[in-house]
Write a structure and sequence with these properties.
Blueprint (H helix, E strand, L loop, with lengths): L2 H9 L7 H6 L13 E6 L6 H13 L8 E7 L4 E4 L5 E7 L7 E4 L12 H7 L1 H9 L5 E5 L2 H7 L7 E2 L6 H6 L3 E2 L4 E3 L3 E4 L4 H14 L1 H11 L7 E3 L5
Parallel strand pairs: 1-2, 1-5, 2-4, 5-6, 6-10, 7-8, 9-11
Antiparallel strand pairs: 3-4, 9-10
């Protein structure tokens, strides 16, 4: 039995009674068809920070252990199916083509913002392909999210102007200058735009999205499996429950 199967067999026992309630009353306020997958796309590019993309992928994939709703998480690239080399040299293969029309959640990691002449966020901004793809992706039913300096890619796409948002602490002045309404929070939820702070906040962003889309029971059982409790303040434009 592999590690994931073992964790599912042991930890999920305590979640069984909560699954029906989670499916019937998700945190987002909607009642999705539990047979329809929650589709998550994580945007990838050369120079992306390893923890920025791996943490949300792990958390959102792991949520499938604690909800009857199927979860589909994939890596995608605005430049087509390819491999990328991450900030510390990790090669990531099997990346799928850009298809935001097939996603419910789009997650944009950061990386390389301190190295303007290296692969990463600045190179993607200068190239323009990913910001243009992000701007064109916006549609009803899609939540665009980003963490760390990935938020600056959303800014380059014009998606944060006049919107509550946050990013890595060193990029906050740039985000404010570009029109973002920067909040001093770990995660900022403005409905179809959800942003988070620096590198490790990818865990908190993903846990918040799990809580919002799949319910509090799914999120808390997932925290137990991960042995990580969400930290920091979540600023939300949604009414308090």
């Amino acid at each position: 039995m592999n590690r994931r199967a073992l964790l599912r067999a042991t930890t999920a026992l305590g979640a069984t009674g909560a699954l029906a309630a989670t499916a019937a009353s998700p945190a987002s306020g909607a009642t999705p068809d539990p047979s329809r997958p929650l589709r998550v796309h994580v945007a990838m590019f050369d120079g992306v920070e390893e923890l920025d993309f791996a943490a949300p992928y792990e958390v959102l994939s792991g949520a499938g252990f604690f909800t009857p709703r199927p979860i589909e998480v994939r890596y995608v690239s605005a430049t087509g199916a390819r491999a990328v080399t991450a900030a510390y040299g990790t090669a990531v293969r099997g990346i799928r083509p850009w298809a935001p029309e097939e996603a419910d959640l789009l997650v944009v990691p950061g990386g390389g913002y301190a190295r303007r002449d290296s692969p990463g966020v600045w190179a993607e901004i200068d190239r323009g392909t990913l910001p243009r793809a992000l701007a064109a992706a916006v549609r009803p039913g899609l939540t665009v999210s980003a963490l760390c300096t990935g938020v600056m890619l959303l800014s380059a796409a014009g998606l944060t102007e006049g919107r509550p948002c946050t990013t890595h602490h060193k990029a906050k002045p740039d985000l404010a200058r570009q029109g973002g309404l920067v909040k001093n929070a770990r995660v900022v939820d403005d409905g179809d735009l959800v942003t988070a702070g620096g590198i490790t906040s990818g865990l908190d962003l993903a846990l918040w999205l799990v809580r919002r889309e799949l319910g509090a029971d799914t999120a808390t059982n997932l925290e137990e499996m991960l042995e990580y409790e969400a930290r920091g303040t979540v600023w939300s434009a949604r009414p308090a429950r």
